[in-house]
Each structure stands twice: as structure tokens, then as C-alpha cells.
Amino acid sequence: MTALPQLKVQRHALVREQVVSILRDAIVQMEFLPGQQLVERELCDMTQASRPSIREALRQLESEGLVESRNGRGAVVAALSRAQAEQLYEVRAELEGMAAEWFTRRASEEQRDEFHRVLTEGAGNAFLGAALAGLQRRVSRLRALTLSSPGRPAQSLAEISAIVAAIDAGDALQARRIALVHVEEAARTALTFAN
Predict the structure, then answer these.
(1) pLDDT above 60 for 3
(2) Domain closes at, from 42, 77, 112
(3) What is the CA radius of gyration of the chain?
(4) 13 CB-side CA count, 13 A
(5) For the segment 186-195, what is each residue's pLDDT rounded down to a tens digit?
(6) How distant, in Å, are the alpha carbons of 63, 113, 191 from that of 118?
(7) Would you give the DSSP letter of residue 115?
(8) 100 near 178, Cβ under 8 Å?
(9) Residue 82 in contact with residue 177, Cβ under 8 Å?
(10) Same domain for 72 and 86?
(11) Is residue 74 a contact partner of residue 34, using CB atoms and an 8 Å limit?
(12) Using CA atoms, how far apart are residues 143 and 189, in angstroms rounded to an integer?
């Protein structure tokens, strides 16, 4: 059987993935600010990647909601409106609550020891993990703001401790409820900074 051209492995795919990772990190870490134009030529110079690799990376980041394509202006870093931030937190709250519940029911003892890092892995649902990872990337800029708010780091730690306690007790529904409250409190703090 002859391989179809569109099914062939592309040799430059690894470079594109590296560029996506570099640009994603720069956006998440606020090295590129919301609304900032991303000039392909400058990105090529910064990353030493080809223009096609930059374009592919920007398309990937657009599909993740981190970049917007503007007619005639090229790509810009996506900016979240207050309504979008509220919607993100609503979905995040439900997904993290679901992950906490499923984690409580399905996680091994080893996974329980590394709660936050493996919460979605322990939930035993790859689709939930992928959805939550995408949301986490988009909300990460807001998370930095929430954790800079006075008292929020300690409150967040107490909420996470309560989630862990519910998981340790095997109370899946309580873990879900506390995870929902945790995200709702983060949203309340973050939305004070949103437009």
C-alpha cells in the first residue's frame, strides 16, 4: 500500500511543537501581554524558527484560545473579557469538582500522595484531563493575579487541604463540593482584576 501524502510524518513537526511550547509559556508567564501583536518576523528572530513553523504554532495557540487572528493585523495575544473569565471559572469549577470526585473514587495510594499534580490522572479520564489542561493554560494568567491578592494564598492552601482531607476520607461528593468552592473563590478574587 502506498502512503498518502497527507499521512506522511513531517520532519519539522518537532520544531513546531517547540515553538508552540515557547510561545505558550511566554503568553502564560505574561511576557507577551493581552492584546499585544505577535509579529511573525520578530518571532522568527526570537525563536530562530522558520516562518512556516511560527505560523503553525500561532494556529495551534489560536485553537487553544491563547492567540486571536485579526484580519489585516496578524495574530495578537488573546485578552479575556470579564464575561469570558466568568465562563472559564464556571467550567473550571465543574471540571475540577468532577476530577476531585473521580480522583477520590479511582486514585491509587501513590496518586493520593501527589494530589494536585496528578488530580486529573487519578480521575481516570483522559478527556477530562485534556479539557482541564486547556482551561488551566487559559486561566493561568488570572491565577497569578489571584495569588497576589492579600490572604488568597493561605485561603487557597486551606481549600486544597480540605479537598485532600475529603479524598483521604473517601468522600467523593465532599471532595467535589470543596473543589467547586475552591475555584469559585479563585474566580471571585480574579474577577476583581478583570475588565
Answers:
(1) no
(2) 77
(3) 19
(4) 5
(5) 999 988 876 5
(6) 25, 9, 27
(7) H
(8) yes
(9) no
(10) no
(11) no
(12) 9
